[in-house]
Amino acid sequence: MEDIDTFNNLGTLSQANQVLQARLAVLGERRDLHELKDIFERYDVASEVGLSLLHKHFSIEEGEVVVEFGHVSTPWPVPPNGKVAGGHVVPRSWRFMSGKPVPYEFGFNHPAQSEYHEYDLPTGFVEEAAAFLSDTNLDDVLGICAIGTAELEGRIEMNRGRVNFTVPPSKPEDMDVRLVPEHAPSVWAFDCKTGLRDTTMTLARVCWVCPKH
Questions:
Q1: Residue 185 is part of which domain span?
Q2: 138 CB contacts (<8 Å, ≥6 apart)?
Q3: Which of 24, 62, 112, 176 is most buried, by the most CB atoms less than 10 A from its CB?
């Protein structure tokens, strides 16, 4: 498993959002991230991975990693080989460090319930995405994460202590952060229903913001 600092060095949701907006503000025409959209299109990965705002709601201890199972993410003690509770964990969120994708969140697969894919991301995609994020000074605030049907339809992430969980929106407005100020964007997907050339990023997940985050 990765060094716990890979996760613990992340900022809070509000800190990450502030940094992202400040960095985008100085990018001029590049702020809409159309170059990144083109990279996703070129390597045909938009239905598998999206963009994630790098943030955390809690810290983890030595030997722990954040593991998702059934839309709930909590710190688990996981040995270096990734095998635990009769199954194994696989990476589902990555941040770029020194140009390499480093996992910081995982999903749990059990023989009786295996829902997380083991991704072999195209080398060219990784290199070009890492280069763009580094060139735009966004590699410490944006990463990539696995997405599925739930994210493409929209989810709301919530936190209680050292437990994160996601729920579906009760109404479409819940996914519009302009209408719901206590929600902040945390994952974006490229809408591939009409083709990437005809669309921009769409929100795949918003995070409910509590005063401490």
A1: 5-208
A2: 20, 23
A3: 24
Supply 190's token pair.
């490229």
| Burial profile 143-164: b = 16 or more Cβ within 10 angstroms, e = fewer | bbbbbbeebbebbbbebeeeeb
- C-alpha–C-alpha distance, residues 127 and 165, integer Å: 31
Spatial separation of the C-alpha atoms in residues 209 and 141, rounded to whole Å: 17
In tens, the pLDDT along 142-154 reads 999 998 776 667 8
Q: Which two tokens mark 179?
A: 């209408």
Report yes or no on 131 lying in a domain.
yes
C-alpha 199/C-alpha 202 separation (Å) is: 9
Q: Which tokens hold the place of 191?
A: 């809408």
How many domains, the chain? 1
pTM: 0.87
**Residue 213, in any domain of the structure:** no
State the residue for tokens 């996992």: 103
